[in-house]
């Protein structure tokens, strides 16, 4: 596998010829719709197939998988373009890649219930878990549900374990920071809350939960661990799995000073798994994201935290969300517009921009002028994702989690797939 940075004057054909792959395969694996739509500075993932197959009349996924002695899900992972359509006569399918897989990992993807079903089906072969955002819990121990039955059914049909994401009630701008205190202080309320969770899990067919409580008051630190112990014991007894999400703030990542309200050791012992979500940045459009920080500072925060609990029980949460800011930038005043990877590349092309790499943060960015105003687009591409995954494996972490899967970035999923065996728990 090779990450190539598009240079001025490059074409799809010159890049493909230089690296011994077909232009069609290079375009498919990097979501390039038109051969002229390359952007200088764009990162392309180049992977060498070791065995291919040409589709014949009458072929089906099942018949090809059988004749080539390959699992259907592996066939879909190698060829995500066929997940949302039928097979075409004479098209070339990858049966295997030359890359050697280095480890087996768990992979989680976050989604909203309204995800495009074709995108969902393209993504599911790459996942161990699908975490559905979100159920909210209230001060009286009830759950505000979401319309999730269809995607739970689809996830299970692909052998992917659906996870119910539970977080605190919030309005448009604020999180209820008192709700955790109320919950951990009242055992009767806890019992009601846990019973509500169990009923929902059993009724809807979930595999387990991801419990996210963004703010724990310092005096509630141990009480929260005790609550998670109780929650995990009760749910494990019913056959369900418990993950707890924790995340550093921009302040923690920038300074290396860890918020004392989170007992990482206690939580890692209380829950089945910890999701260390590197950022909540998608929730706060008026603040700079962690992705602007020097990469070494982010890795230092990660390693310091992971050292407090067993890395083998921890999943690293990575975001694929980008941002667009108008300049001049004023902290807490300038609002960021969220942007996905494909939109960022398209915007760079439409504005004749050159994508650059901010070396300290390993983030891709470009400036552009529109309607006499200056903007900056900022996003993570395959270079940053590759580095984060590699470091998580150096630390011995259990796997990775992607926020979010609402769009399908082919080269990122192939980057993960060719390096790692994706574990299944169903």
Detailed description of the structure:
The structure is a single chain. The chain is α/β, with parallel strands linked by helices and 426 residues long. The protein has three domains: 2-97, LysM domain (Membrane-bound Lytic Murein Transglycosylase D, Chain A), CATH 3.10.350; 103-320 and 381-422, Glycosidases (TIM Barrel); 322-379, Chitinase A, domain 3 (Roll). Helices cover 34% and strands 24% of the residues. It contains 15 helices and 19 strands. Strand 15 (356-358) and strand 16 (363-370) form a beta hairpin. The radius of gyration is 22 Å and the shape is globular. The mean pLDDT is 92.
Concise structural overview:
By secondary structure, this protein is α/β, with parallel strands linked by helices. The chain is 34% helix and 24% strand. Strand 5, helix 5 and strand 6 form a beta-alpha-beta unit.
List keywords for this structure.
8-stranded parallel β-barrel; single chain; globular; alpha/beta; 426 residues; TIM Barrel; 3 domains; 19 strands; 5-stranded antiparallel β-sheet; Chitinase A, domain 3; Membrane-bound Lytic Murein Transglycosylase D, Chain A; 15 helices
Secondary-structure map with pairings?
Layout: E1 2-5, H1 12-19, H2 23-29, E2 43-46, E3 49-54, H3 61-67, H4 72-78, E4 92-97, E5 103-111, H5 117-123, E6 129-137, E7 143-144, H6 149-157, E8 161-168, H7 179-185, H8 187-204, E9 208-212, H9 221-237, E10 241-246, H10 250-255, H11 264-270, E11 273-277, H12 295-306, E12 314-319, E13 322-326, E14 337-339, H13 341-350, E15 356-358, E16 363-370, E17 373-379, H14 382-394, E18 399-403, H15 410-419, E19 420-422
Parallel strand pairs: 5-6, 5-18, 5-19, 6-8, 8-9, 9-10, 10-11, 11-12, 12-18
Antiparallel strand pairs: 1-2, 3-4, 6-7, 13-14, 13-17, 15-16, 16-17
